[in-house]
Amino acid sequence: MNNFQNNIERNHLYARKVAQIADSRRHLRRDCGSLTYRRPKKKARKAHSARERTFSRKRPLFMMLLFFVSQYFFLQSPLFQFREIKIEGNNHLESAVFEEKLSLSPSFSYWNLSPESLEESLTSLHRLEDASVSVDFPGQVNVKVSERKPSFFVAYRRDQKHWFSVDETGVVLEGQQPKSGLKFLLPHPIKGGTKVRPKDMQVVRFFEDHVDGPLGKQIRAINISNTRQVSLKVLIHKRPVWVRLGRPERLEYKLFLLSELLGQLAKEKVEIKSIDLRYSAPVVKMMPPKS
After folding, report:
1. Of 239, 231, 234, nearest to 186 (Cα)?
2. What DSSP character marks residue 85?
3. What H or E segment, with its residue span, contains residue 55?
4. Which tens digits make up the pLDDT trace of 12-39?
5. What DSSP assignment string belongs to 252-278?
6. What share of the chain is helix, strand, coil (3-state, %, to 5)?
7. N or C: which end of the chain has fewer CB within 10 A?
8. Which domains does the chain possess?
9. What is the DSSP code string of 115-159?
10. Kind and range of the H or E element at 163?
């Protein structure tokens, strides 16, 4: 009898112990009559993991922002600032003229230098035929130019003390006293940077193509009037004589006739006042005999 009661109490204590264990370990569950271990939910761990995932997503953006900021300050450093101008091909224009037109200062950055805009700033220099600008890293500006070359000379017929050189396209370059080459007197004031009228350029090109030899050496000036009347100042016996050619038609024939006439007059010891070739027969006026 006592053994039976002892067994009952022992079973009761065992049941209470199992109940206490089950109550303290709620993460344990019964499965098929046996106790199976179940991992507890870690809510705090999940919240912490969510914050880590959020930061891990933003980290690349932060690193990219940091990279761009560092690159910006690097590219704005003095390493990339403008330093010098290198000019090639200038024979008449001084380097200071180019520096003034380009208007570059040490504060300019390599990234702000545009070759196209720099080339455009040089277009006002009428002495230039062509200009190309390039920018070399980190801050050197290279300017290569070709200057216009004088082809003939022009002057206002009422101001023959001031002559200007002109290139082959008709651009008036600069004031220059002619030593050689054809000289043309025009009926309007001359200014550097302007262009000779196209109709006058036709006359100029004709004389450039057809005047040479002895006749070219005797011609001292070619006058073109408002009505495009052409006349020449030639030397006969070391004395200037005006020859009227008229309008620029049949100029080639008139120059041939003048060349033959000058050859004959060179053999005669007479002073010529003027020659007119506007008519079918040349008109030669002599100077009155000296008393």
Report:
1. 231
2. E
3. helix 43-75
4. 777 777 677 666 655 555 544 555 555 5
5. HHHHHHHHHHHHHHTTS---EEEEE-S
6. 40, 30, 35
7. C
8. 78-147 (3.10.20.310), 152-286 (3.40.50.11690)
9. HHHHHHHTTT-TTEEEEEEEEETTTEEEEEEEE----EEEEETTE
10. strand 159-166
